[in-house]
Amino acid sequence: MSHSIDVRGTLTILVGAVIAAGCASTPRAPAERPTAIVGESRPAAASEGEQVVRVAAGLIGSPYRYGGADPRHGFDCSGLVFYSFDRLGIEVPRTAADQRHAAKPVARDELSPGDLVFFRSSGRRVDHVGIYAGAGRFIHAPSKGAVVTYAYLDDPYYRSHFVSAGRLL
User: Fold this and answer.
1) Contact in structure between 145 and 80 (CB atoms under 8 Å)
2) Burial state string for 129-150 with b = 16 or more CB within 10 A and e = fewer than 16
3) Long-range contacts of range 131-137, CB-CB < 8 Å, 24 or more positions apart?
4) FRET pair for 12, CA 20 to 30 Å: which of 27, 57, 111, 128?
5) What is the edge-to-edge ordering of all strands in the sheet holding 149-152?
């Protein structure tokens, strides 16, 4: 009588045993959610300014359109501001000049997300506005043929055309 090992038969038995053990195990109770520890800090809810920035950032890539104030047709600079604040139920004037007059002045080094930055590209009137996003960047609808995008306050063009900043919130 020879004692040869049947490899195929042994593998079949092992696989069957593993499957049976898996099926026979008792299900684990779902892990309980950890309870908050008294005094533990939780992430703060986004400020209104940060919410305005989120709305505007969601419109990046939307086309520029003079007089535009909605995603279907596009935006001009003040239309982007108008729409972004309106989505949060905050009424603001429609033009860049009127938005500047309605905003409380803020020093450039005290800007917070959601503040407005105003520029004068030609003439004496403020004719461009953007929404400050933080870290020296703002979101705006720059000009015909462009799309809603980020720009930097330190960009030479915007640095030389910067007029003021203001807060509506």
Assistant:
1) no
2) bbbbbeeebbbbbbeeeeebbe
3) 131/52, 131/53, 131/56, 131/80, 131/81, 131/84, 132/53, 132/165, 133/53, 133/56, 133/57, 134/53
4) 27
5) 104-105, 162-167, 116-119, 128-134, 137-140, 149-152
Q: pTM (2 decimals)?
A: 0.74
Catalytic residues: 77, 128, 140
According to DSSP, residue 28 is labeled P
| pLDDT tens, position by position, 11-40 | 333 333 333 333 332 333 333 333 334 444
> Contact, 69 vs 94, CB < 8 A?
yes
Tokens of 52: 């305005």
